Amino acid sequence: MPTTSPGSYVADTNQFMPPHFGGDEAVEYGAFTFADTTARTVFTLPKGAVITDFGVNVTTVFNSSGTDLLDAGITGTGDFFVNDLAVSATGHSRAGVATTVPSRLFTAPLDDETNVTIQYTQGVADATTGAGVFYVRYILMSS
User: Fold this and answer.
1) Burial class (CB in 10 A: 0-12, 13-18, 19+), 109
2) 60, 40 in Cβ contact below 8 A?
């Protein structure tokens, strides 16, 4: 049964908000290229976010003559979401792929705003092309 309090929104018994009150799924995403060889923040997730999906879409092939890998994480843990995901071919990779961390899905809401970082690593430092987008989909829990 939904609960309310004066001046606030409606939340269900699990403290999820219904659509149009923050219960809709939202997405944050950030682009990365072959030049992102140092971890950098691409977006910030809001306090209360519960992650429902994350993934990578490679739009331009990364062309190092060695391996082409992506880590996506949070400040202090560079591979929180993705560890050494091959990005040498175009396409979309989602949670469940061996190099992603599906245990990060549907866990406790974030206690604070959380910076999300990406870092491209090449086996041989000779890449001249490569571009993609990393995304996180989430819902907000009520406070």
Assistant:
1) middle
2) no
Question: Do the Cβ atoms of 40 and 34 come closer than 8 Å?
Answer: no
Q: At residue 30, does pLDDT exceed 80?
A: yes
Q: Is 122 exposed, middle or buried (0-12, 13-18, 19+ CB in 10 A)?
A: buried
Furthest C-alpha separation in the chain: 61
Calpha distance 100→8 (Å, rounded): 37
pTM over 0.90: no
- 37-140 folds as Jelly Rolls (2.60.120)
Query: What distance in Å separates the CA atoms of residue 139 and residue 3, rounded to the nearest whole number?
Result: 18
Instruction: Give the C-alpha separation, 112 to 115, whole Å.
Output: 10
Q: Sheet harboring 49-60: ordered strands across?
A: 26-33, 131-140, 49-60, 91-94
More confident call, 141 vs 34: 34
Please count the residues of the chain: 143
Residue type for 55, please? G
3-state secondary structure of 12: coil
